[in-house]
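Long-time lurker. I teach an intro course on protein structure, and each term I like to show students one example going from raw sequence to a predicted 3D structure in token notation. This year I'd like something fresh instead of my usual example. Would anyone be willing to generate the tokens for the chain below so I can use it in lecture? Attribution to the forum is fine with me.
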Amino acid sequence: MDLTALLERFGEPTVLGMGGLLIGVLFGFFAQRSRFCLRAAVIEFWRGQSGEKLAVWLLAFSAAVVGVQWLTLVGALDASGSRQLAARGSISGALIGGTLFGVGMVMTRGCASRLLVLSANGNLRALLSGLVFAVAAQASLSGAVAPLRTALWGWWTVDAGAARDVLALVGMDHRGGLVVGLVWMAAALYFSMRSTHSVWKWLGGLGTGLAVAAGWWFTYAVSTATFEIVPVQGLTFSGPSAEWLMRVLVQSTTAVGFDFGLLPGVFLGSLMGALLGRDWKIEGFKDGYSMGRYTMGAVLMGFGSMLAGGCAVGAGMSGGAVFALTAWLALIGMWGGAGLADRLLDRVAPTNGPLKAHSAPAP
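-- Reply from a regular --
Happy to contribute to a lecture. Here you go:
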């Protein structure tokens, strides 16, 4: 692919938007077929089940880490200029925001990317939650609750550069990062062997993670092939959700870029996967309690993602793959917050015997 020729013919916005669309289709398709979901993986982990949901998430996460670190080692990627590493970060924002996001994704039974995937499958609960998530994200970015987000973000900050790079902090290079990714992949394969799932779970998990790595590679490739300033970035869903909300509501002046094509691409890819697997069906709320729970969860996710610097994919996978300190802290917060919310909301303590989980509807 002659990227320079494409840029000269169509321009940076079109090329970036089409790249986001294509990579989004791949992510949406693989995520739908594998049932990729951080919330489900966290619940399995905290309940000591170690089943296929945890295996799929580990496959996706490790594939993203291995892909990004390998691309960096061969000179096809340099993420040092990305916002996760080159801008000042917030430890308080990562921990608090990640925890709130984790609580919210248990309440909505899916993270931001999972809600988008499920919306394309006919799930009206996910569609409404996704819309509320986008509103809350925009309100946190520049709306009514932006001052609160800014205040929490400023409690404990960290300098840009090496101070935000986990590999630099522990004295490792990208070879060490690749080894860490391979160790995670070995753990994923171990859990995969213990659970029974189809080839689609394997391919889908790996494909989902490699789509994250592809996002990093593509935006970097475009940035090096043009004289225009193009941000090097991975996949994320909080910022693009807020951006698309404003494009729908008002005449937006935001330039078309990678994020512009990402969300439609994920929706289209998930729809293709649902039709292929005959999973498409209309689903809605069963009662008022469920609707209130999903709505509150979406608000927590929207605010938490903007405070943490990204969602479960944006901070957890894209940021984690480049070993950004705040991304790993946000991911820890998500796992902790989700585990706490699951224990408080979806488990009951019977009069005798161990804790048992409520039978909750599938997301």
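Some talking points for your students: DSSP finds 17 helices and four strands in the chain. Residues 349-362 have pLDDT under 50 and may be disordered.
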